Amino acid sequence: MLPGNSRSTWDSHILDDPRVVSYWDGGRIAGKWFADNGLGGLGSPGSIVWDAYYAFPKQTHWNALSAGLVAAGSDIIDNTGHLEHNFIPLLPS
After folding, report:
1. Between residues 4 and 36, the one the model is more confident about
2. Residues 28, 9 contacting (CB under 8 angstroms)
3. In a domain, 1, yes or no
4. Which of 66, 72, 79, 82 has the fewest beta carbons closer than 10 A?
5. Considering the domain boundaries, does residue 86 fall inside one?
6. What is the pLDDT of residue 23?
C-alpha cells in the first residue's frame, strides 16, 4: 500500500514469531474484503483496509462474518501504543 511496494522488496519475516503467518496479497483482495465487510469498524465499502490488525480467539474458525473478533485497529505503523493497549490484556499471564 506504499509507493514502491512489491513482492521482491517485501520482508515476509518482519513479524518473526512462530504464531504469525504472512502472505503477499498483491491484488489487495484481503484488504478489500475487510473494508467491504466493515469488520472491526475498519474501512468502508469500496475502500481498502491496510496497516491494520485483527485479533481472534485461538479456537476461532472462519465460518461467520465476525469470527469472534476481540480487537481490531489501525494504524499500526505510527500507533503501536494502541496496538499494545488492545493486545496486552489478551495475552496469557
Report:
1. 36
2. no
3. no
4. 66
5. yes
6. 82
80 domain residue, yes or no: yes
Reduce the secondary structure of the chain to three states and give it as a string: CCCCCCHHHCCCCCCCCCCCCCCCCCCCHHHHHHHHHCHHHCCCCCCCCCCEEEECCCCCCCCCCCCCCCEEEECCCCCHHHHHHHHHHHCCC
Domain span holding position 48 = 7-90
Q: Quote the pTM value.
A: 0.72
- C-alpha to C-alpha distance for 49 and 28, rounded to whole angstroms: 9
pLDDT tens digits, one per residue of 5-56? 788 887 777 777 887 778 888 889 999 999 999 989 999 999 999 888 888 8
Q: Which amino acid is present at 49?
A: V
* Closest alpha carbon to 40 in 31, 15, 4: 31
Is 2 part of any domain? no
